[in-house]
Amino acid sequence: MTPQLSDATPSWPYCGHVSPSAETHERCLGRRVDPYRRCLKHLGDDHRAAYLAQLRPGSDLDHRCTSITENLLALLLDAVRDPDTQQITLGTVRFDGAQLLGDADFGGVHFKGPASFEQTTFLGTARFVATAFDEDARFERAQFRGAQFRDAAFDSNAWFGQAQFTDDVRFDRARFSGHARFGLTTFSGNAAFDGAQFLGSVGFHGAHILGCAWFDGARFETASRLGPLVCEEAVDLSGVIFAAPVVIEAATRRMWCTQTEWAAKATLRLRYATVDLTDAVLAHPFSIIAQTGPFTDRTGTERTEEGLEEGALAGSDARVRVASLRGVDAAHVVLHNVDLTLCRLSGAVHLDQLRLEGEYLLAPPPVGICRRGLLPVRWTKRRTLAEEQHWRAAQGQDAWAAAPTGVKVVEPTELASVYRQLRKSFEDGKNEPDAADFYYGEMEMRRHDQQRPRAERTLLTLYWAVSGYGMRASRALAWLLGAMATTVLVMTLWGIPKVAARPESTGRLTGKSISMTSGIPIP
Length: 523
Description:
This protein has 523 residues and is an alpha/beta fold. 19% of the residues lie in helices and 27% in strands. It has a 10-stranded parallel β-sheet with strand order 3-7-10-13-17-21-25-27-29-32, with no helix packed on it. A hairpin with a 2-residue loop joins strand 38 and strand 39. The longest helix is centred in the last third of the chain and has 22 residues. The N and C termini lie far apart (119 Å).
């Protein structure tokens, strides 16, 4: 198939060669190689050799809409190689609409001028490993089967808008000094940006990643927005540094933010995601907000009104879940409409300043009548922490959620402190009704804490049995009715004397003295 940018006649002088063996007599739109009348593909051997011989390091290349084989590309790049340093240097490069038929290895090439690969089709693996782009690098609407941009340096702007990556693509340790644009880009595999540096603005508006997006150890210096994007598997932000205020918008199954450092204000607007914030550094206001509807791409395309296509995520539960806040300073954290059913909170500090807004979910106790030994037990309805669920399951109590494999079970001593801090957070927010559940949980953990004196645990058990720590009016009312019934029963069986007993006096006369004794007989 003859590569072409559009059905219109191109503005550049084109080859026009028609292959007699082709089923359709299409003209080749490849850019002519001056001063010849044919493109690089259709040049004769003598003319091609003459053209390659006149190339020097830093020469400009213009092979738009040209089909280039792997061997021909190797000859072309070897012609601009410095014989002393073996460095391949190019000036202005135009491969717009070209078709690279085999692996395209541009590894280590130094592009001193603008490099344009718009609508280029890479039928093999495109390798730009350790490649340096001094000026703009344009890959809009390019099609990649597999791509490697590891250690590439984009000293100006990098444009990948609407590009399509069929297989995995790697930008590990790449440096983007200018704008990095991936708007409406499609990644059919995984996209790796581990250790990459984004020194300018970043655009992933409308990007769709069918696999995982890895940013482990990357650094964003001035990026104010990441997304909105759709990543059907997971977004890994572990170890990432955000040096400026940022808004992250993503629809994804999982988001890892382990040891992520936010040096300024950050807002995460998410759908479907389970977020792990273990050991994240949050020095400024930080919020996680559940997005109610699909994101819009903000690019002015037709998809803006209907929202981004969510692929395999569509139809799933769009709730946002927080899996862990361990090691986090929660003084600036706000969670809006999130699910904390599986969240591990032990190990976090300043939980008394954590703000839960909107509708939040915590794990409930088992429902119905359960067996605890030989006795039936009905658990009190309340909100519980995931760690309490894990601890009770480890004690052999049925129907409580067991800890996942590799997760350490937290003891009641630490859980009591977590409940106490959450209770204070709700009380400071004038939400005393919901704070009551955390008070109940705190007292339960104190009652089961084996490190406390036996006498204290006994009193707490009596307090729990009589009134549910003063929080269960029905239990206290039942004890009151029982005491009243017992009193009435005793009075009915033994009664009260109808006539009050009169005093009786007894005496004895001895000589001239009389001694008297007065007493009241027993009724």
